Structures are given as C-alpha cells and as structure tokens.
Amino acid sequence: MTRTLAQLPGAARRLCLSRRNGEICTREDGHRGLHHRTGGRLLWSDLQADPPACAGAGAPAQPAPTLPDGFPYGRAVCPVCWAFVALTDDATLSAHDSWRGDESRTEADRRREWFNAFGW
Questions:
Q1: CA 109 to CA 27: how far, in whole Å?
Q2: Half-sphere exposure (Cβ direction) of 24: Cα atoms closer than 13 Å
Q3: How far apart are CA 115 and CA 77, in angstroms?
Q4: pTM, whole model, 2 decimals?
Q5: pLDDT tens digit sequence for 38-59
Q6: What is the 3-state secondary structure (H, E, C) of the chain?
Q7: Which of 25, 37, 42, 85 fits as disulfide partner to 18, beta carbons 3.0 to 4.6 Å?
Q8: Residue pair 36/27 in contact by the 8 Å Cβ criterion
C-alpha cells in the first residue's frame, strides 16, 4: 500500500533516497524497479545513481548557528546535500556521504527545528 510521505512513520528513514543529479528517490526503501522522484519525470537505475560520497567534501565552511541546546554541535551545513557535517582543521567540510535521512527520530526533530529557525 502506498502512503504519502507525511503518513510514513519516520518519514525519510522509510524512503529509498537513492540520488541522481541531485534528485532523491521518493519510493519506499527496498522497492523493485527504477528509482523515481515523486512529481518528476526523472527515472534511473542503480547503475545510473550518483555515488554515495558527497561532492561537497572539501568545500570551505564555517560552523552553523546553534539552537539553545547546542545543535548541530559545531557542524556545518553542506550546500550540496544539506547534511550537517564535521569540519576539518582547515575549516573545510570533511568527507561524507550525501544525506539520505536522519539516523534517529530525535535527529530528525532537531534537524527540522534547526531549519525552521535558521532556514535553508
């Protein structure tokens, strides 16, 4: 049974999140067939998917503003994949995989609160 994104428990954690040209697959994790972005015309196979490593690694960055509890704890926002990423000693984004969903409901809640407070 297909449900809307808002109806899925844990939202993005239940999605495939394969990427192609920056678009994220919005089909359920483990789906069969081609990847697809809801509302778009782009279809792609696993062979055509972007590699998991984000192209934003190594870009100059500074720590993101923090919420009262300290989130995102000195990490910067990657302008390519929108992940919170640790900085290297020379103030660049460390190597990381493209954001493919939060690891926990708590992280998703903190992330949502941060983007609501500081924007994209």
A1: 22
A2: 17
A3: 10
A4: 0.70
A5: 777 889 999 999 888 898 999 9
A6: CCCCHHHCCCHHHHECCCEECCEECCCECCCCCCEECCCCCCEECHHHCCCCECCCCCCECCCCCCCCCCCCCCCEECCCCCCEECECCCCEECCCECCCCCCCHHHHHHHHHHHHHHCC
A7: 25
A8: yes
Residue corresponding to tokens 């989130």: 71
Give 57: exposed, middle or buried? Use CB within 10 Å, 0-12, 13-18, 19+.
Answer: middle
Q: Strand pairing partners for 91?
A: none
Structure tokens at 114: 């941060």
In single-letter form, the type of residue at position 79 comes to: P
Would you say 89 and 45 are in contact if contact means Cβ atoms under 8 Å apart? no
Which amino acid, one-letter code, is at 25?
C
Q: How many CB atoms lie within 10 A of CB 17?
A: 17
Please give the Cα distance from 112 to 56 (Å, whole number).
21
Phi, psi torsion values for 8, nearest 5 degrees: -75, 130
CA dist list (Å): 27 to 59, 67, 91, 115, 120: 30, 32, 36, 24, 24
